[in-house]
Amino acid sequence: MFEISEHCFDLIFAFDEIVALGYRENVNLAQIRTFTEMDSHEEKVFRAVRETQEREAKAEMRRKAKELQQARRDAERSGKKVPAFGGFGSAGMTSVSSGTIITDTMVEQEKPKITPAPARATGPSKALKLGAKGKEVDNFVDKLKSEGETIMASTGKRGSEVSKALPPPANVESVHLRVEEKISLTCGRDGGLQNMEVLGMVTLRVSDDKNGRIRLIINNNDNKGLQLQTHPNVDKKLFTAESVIGLKNPEKSFPLNNDVGVLKWRLQTTDESLTPLTINCWPSESGSGCDVNIEYELQEESLELNDVVISIPVPSGVGAPVIGDLDGEYKHDSRRNVLEWNLPLIDANNKTGSLEFSIAGQPNDFFPINVSFVSKRNYCDIQVAKVTYVDGDGPVRFSSETSFVVDKYEIL
After folding, report:
1. What is the pLDDT of residues 43-54, one digit of tens each?
2. Which residue, among 269, 195, 262, has the nearest Cα to 225 in the 3D structure?
C-alpha cells in the first residue's frame, strides 16, 4: 500500500495514457513507458530558470555578507567620531571651475552613525543591524557556510567596477599621505583623443597629536598644464611661492584621525600625445569572418601599469575565437561575450605588445574596447618630498602610498 501511495502520480499518468474520455487507447506497454518517461522541454526550462535564480540569490547573499563585514570593520576602525576642523572634509573639496566632485572616491568621508529603528510591540526585530558587535553578520555568514558557500574577506572595493585596488602599505606612520589619481579617457577607433581627464588629490591623515602642526613640501615636476587647488584652510601664498602646504594659522593643528584632502589637481585635454596607453584595433573581414589584430603602446614610459586587462567584445553564438600571436594571456568569457587580454605588467621594458585572433563577425562587433589597470606611480608627477614641523623645520617621519587607477578607459 505504501508503494502505491508513493507512486500514485506515476500511476495516474500511466492510466491517463491508457484511457481517454472513458475509452481505452490503442497503446502497448512499451509505448506507455515511452510516454511517461518522455522528457519535458518546459520542465527543463523551468529547472534551468530555477537554478539560475538560486545561483543569483546565493551570489547576492555573498555580496551582502561582504558589504556587512566591511561595514563592521570600517565602524571598528573609525572609533569615536572626531569633531570637524574648520571646514575640513568633503564640503570644501568640490571642484570650482568644472563642477566635478572628486572627493567621492578620493577621500574617505566620515561615515554617519546608523541609529537602529525602535523595536515593534510584537517583539524584537530579527533583521540584520550594524553596531551589534557583528553577531548578526557572523550568523549570516555561518548560514552561508553551512550551505557550502565559501565566504572571502572583502577588500572594501566592489570587484565589478572601475578598477582593482592596490594593497595598503605594510608600515603606516602616524603621518600618512595618499597620492591618488584616476583617469577617464575616451578615444576613437580610428585614432584621435576625444577627451581625457585626470583627477588627483593628496590626502593627509595624522594619528598622533604631537605631529599635528606640520607642513608638507611638495615636488611638482609636471609640465602638462595642471589646474592646482589647495584646501581653503591652507595658506595659498605659501604654496604658490614655495610649494609648501601649511595652515593659514600656523598655531593650529591638522585634525586628528581624519582624512584631509589638502591638495587636488585636474588635467583635461584632447592632446593625443598625452595618452598614457594607446590601443589600436584592426579588424579585417575574411571569407569565414574577421581577423582581428590589436596592439598596445605605452607612451608615458615613466609609468608602470599592473594588472592590465583589455576587454574586447566578441559576437555571441559563434564559438570561441581562434588565437594567433599573443603577448600575455587571454580569457574568453562566453557568458559576457568578451575576450579579455591580460598583461601583468606594462612598463618601459615591455612597452608594446599585440594580440591576433579570428572569429566570425563584422568589424563593428569588436567595439567598444575597455581597458583597466592599476599603478603605484601617478601620471602627473606630483609627490610629497618631505614633512617638517612648523616650529624648527625638523623632519617628521611619514609614510605614503601612490595609486593611479582607471575610472573609464574606452575606445569607441
Report:
1. 777 888 888 888
2. 269
- What is the C-alpha separation between 300 and 199, in angstroms, rounded? 17
Burial class (CB in 10 A: 0-12, 13-18, 19+), 51: exposed
Q: With beta carbons less than 8 A apart as the criterion, state whether 306 and 376 touch.
A: yes
Q: What is the CATH number of domain 175-273+379-411?
A: 2.60.40.1170
Phi and psi dihedrals of 296, rounded to 5? -120, 155
Query: Do 47 and 39 form a contact (C-beta atoms < 8 A)?
Result: no
Range 277-375: architecture per CATH? Sandwich (2.60)
Distances, alpha carbon 185 to alpha carbons 36, 87, 100, 190, in Å: 61, 32, 15, 15
Cis check: omega of the bond before 83, within 30 degrees of 0: no
* 165 class by beta-carbon count within 10 Å (0-12 exposed, 13-18 middle, 19+ buried): middle
3-state secondary structure of 76: helix
Same fold, 175-273+379-411 and 277-375: yes
Calpha distance 47→373 (Å, rounded): 39
Name the band, by pLDDT with cuts 50, 70 and 90, for residue 98.
very low
> What tens digit of pLDDT does each residue of 260-269 get?
999 999 999 9
